[in-house]
């Protein structure tokens, strides 16, 4: 599975939006970068699916532009006026060339899902590798209205329970993609979240 971060060159705040090419060319999140449609077109002429990890603004601001440009079906857990397929925990879908399991992972957002395949984890904002708060294993913020550290901790545990052995690629909503022992990174994120200390103490 070839995965491209199509918002990597953004000059304004956005999530990482990942294009996985292959049998079912899929965009995971649309991001907030103007010009993302042009970057996607550098890699493919068609999109078979757009999948949302959750619907925070930095993940969906350019969603309409992407859907209009590629006429792709939208998969999402939470309701959305353009949703074609409702995701549920335990569903499977093909992303690029790999079958992924949908894991419901609330805490950072009520509608958050992660995608797990035999080799990769698309973790959205629940777990990241490096995001300015922690390196080599960080977790999504939970200090804003509607967020919950307790639910996030449960969600990270659910990822560990459902993630196959040998996953070597983690594509998260912020920070860098990680290639290596993903389980170690997720376990470190869980340990830090369980301390229940503020992620950003100065905020």
TrEMBL record:
<dbReference type="InterPro" id="IPR051453">
    <property type="entry name" value="MBL_Glyoxalase_II"/>
</dbReference>
<dbReference type="InterPro" id="IPR036866">
    <property type="entry name" value="RibonucZ/Hydroxyglut_hydro"/>
</dbReference>
<dbReference type="Pfam" id="PF00753">
    <property type="entry name" value="Lactamase_B"/>
</dbReference>
<feature type="domain" description="Metallo-beta-lactamase">
    <location>
        <begin position="14"/>
        <end position="174"/>
    </location>
</feature>
<keyword id="KW-0862">Zinc</keyword>
<protein>
    <submittedName>
        <fullName>MBL fold hydrolase</fullName>
    </submittedName>
</protein>
<keyword id="KW-0479">Metal-binding</keyword>
<dbReference type="InterPro" id="IPR001279">
    <property type="entry name" value="Metallo-B-lactamas"/>
</dbReference>
<dbReference type="GO" id="GO:0016787">
    <property type="term" value="F:hydrolase activity"/>
</dbReference>
<keyword id="KW-0378">Hydrolase</keyword>
<dbReference type="GO" id="GO:0046872">
    <property type="term" value="F:metal ion binding"/>
</dbReference>
């Amino acid at each position: 599975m070839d995965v491209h971060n199509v918002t990597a060159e953004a000059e304004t705040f956005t999530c990482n939006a990942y294009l996985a090419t292959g049998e079912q060319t899929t965009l995971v999140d649309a991001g907030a970068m103007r010009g993302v449609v042009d970057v996607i077109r550098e890699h493919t002429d068609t999109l078979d699916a757009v999948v949302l990890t959750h619907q925070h603004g930095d993940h969906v601001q350019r969603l309409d532009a992407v859907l209009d440009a590629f006429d792709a079906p939208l998969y999402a857990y939470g309701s959305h006026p353009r949703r074609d397929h409702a995701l549920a925990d335990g569903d499977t879908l093909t992303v690029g060339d790999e079958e992924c399991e949908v894991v419901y992972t609330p805490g950072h957002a009520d509608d958050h899902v992660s995608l797990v395949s035999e080799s990769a984890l698309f973790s959205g904002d629940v777990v990241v590798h490096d995001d300015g708060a922690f390196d080599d294993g960080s977790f999504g913020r939970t200090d804003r209205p509607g967020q919950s550290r307790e639910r996030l901790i449960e969600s990270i545990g659910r990822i560990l329970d459902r993630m196959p052995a040998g996953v070597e690629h983690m594509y998260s909503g912020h920070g860098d993609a990680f290639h290596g022992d993903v389980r170690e990174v997720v376990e470190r994120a869980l340990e830090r979240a369980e301390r229940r200390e503020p992620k950003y103490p100065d905020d």
